[in-house]
Amino acid sequence: MKFSVIQPFPGVTHITDVMGVSFTLIEGCREAVLFDTGYGMEDAGSFVETLTDKPVTVLLSHGHHDHILGARWFKKSYLCKEDLEEFRARTGELQRTKVKAQAGNACVKVPEDFMTAVIPLPEPIRFTGETAGFESLKMDLGGREILVLRVPGHTPGSIVIYIADAGLLLTGDNWNPCTWMWFPSSIAADKWRGNMKHMLNGIESAYAAGIRNVICSHQPMVREGTELKDFLDYMTDDRLREAPAVDMGAPIDTHRIEREQWTLVFDMNKIKYNEND
After folding, report:
1. pLDDT by residue (tens digit) across 118-172?
2. In sequence order, which residues have a C-beta less than 8 Å from that of residue 98 and are 6 or more positions away?
3. Are 265 and 251 in contact (CB under 8 A)?
4. To the nearest 5 percent, what fractions of the chain are helix, strand and coil?
5. Residue 274: which pLDDT band, with cuts at 50, 70 and 90?
6. What is the dihedral of CA 36, 38, 39, 41, to 10 degrees?
7. How far apart are CA 71 and CA 140, in angstroms?
């Protein structure tokens, strides 16, 4: 196995797979949650068993292949119902063929049954409350409560997880220092920015710990909460409107904003459409 791990907080283990995508194990005294599963090139299920002996609930941040193909190593997972169709497409033959080629180009060993392995369709997450206007679910892991919120952005069913005792927000792909908002299922970049800001304000109003730390899905380290806030503040309407076009190899009107280590790529047509509403 080629997983690498860091443990930035007690009971929080951030795992990066051989393809470079990350996912996170959160433990309480009684139970654990695994947030995403990676590309599936390695047996994530067996690896997680070396980290904890607690029962593990698998929550998928959204329906894209680099976060869900590893669900093959688990009996059950959960995903927002809004991303179930995305899951079906991204676990299909076409997507697996592309991922297999990507792995081969990176000299990563592909499991012999990669193309045929059954990946159970996730059960929909059943939210029981609302936080800052977003569907939410509180989970008691035993001495540790986590808050799961559906925050439409990277996909309509994207979720984030907040861990109050660590002042930690897990953003999935709703924020990375390089954030992609140009996929067909992504919402308009200005609406995503508004959702993220509203979510941050809601959490910080409800929890004294606030958001001191952030863990992303494509970073093998912890980032400061202030960076996420500054990123969102930087992506103003004026900067969105003035962002230069960039060719992402797809028939989409993609534009990009860059600032030092930050990048936002988005579909300009969705913003134009909203302006005409």
Report:
1. 999 999 999 999 999 999 999 999 999 999 999 999 999 999 999 999 999 999 9
2. none
3. no
4. 30, 25, 40
5. low
6. -130
7. 23
Tokens of 76: 């059950």
Q: What is the pLDDT of residues 175-216, one digit of tens each?
A: 999 999 999 999 999 999 999 999 999 999 999 999 999 999
As a residue count, the chain comes to 277
Question: Cα–Cα distance between 38 and 88 in angstroms, integer?
Answer: 16
Q: Which residue carries 């029962």 as its tokens?
A: 55
What's the rounded Cα separation, in Å, for the pair 40 and 36?
A: 11
Q: What DSSP designation does 70 have?
A: G
The two structure tokens encoding residue 53: 């002996």
Reference 34, options 10, 11, 18; nearest CA is 11
Dist. CA 38–CA 60, nearest whole Å: 10
Report the predicted TM-score, pTM, of the whole model to 2 decimal places: 0.96
Domains of the chain and CATH, by start: 4-275 (3.60.15.30)
